[in-house]
Amino acid sequence: MSTTEETKPELIPTKIWKCRNADCKAWVRDEFAADSQLCPMCKGPMLRSIRHLPAVVNKIKRQPKPKNEYGL
């Protein structure tokens, strides 16, 4: 199986939070990070960084339509 430029995703600079603990390899994209900025794995402090990652398409989940009393 050969790799071509068409199959490789385009990498873009992305803001991330990574764990300061050298033994912990956890990181999270800034857009998905919690407000507390604690490592989700070891609960240690995190610091800002940048990684070159493929773009993520955030899909909006649709809210279910409210059903009336007849189930329509």
Automatic annotation (TrEMBL):
**Superkingdom of source:** Bacteria
Tell me the InterPro entries matching this sequence.
YdjO (IPR025916)
Name assigned to this protein = Cold shock protein
Species name: Paenibacillus pasadenensis
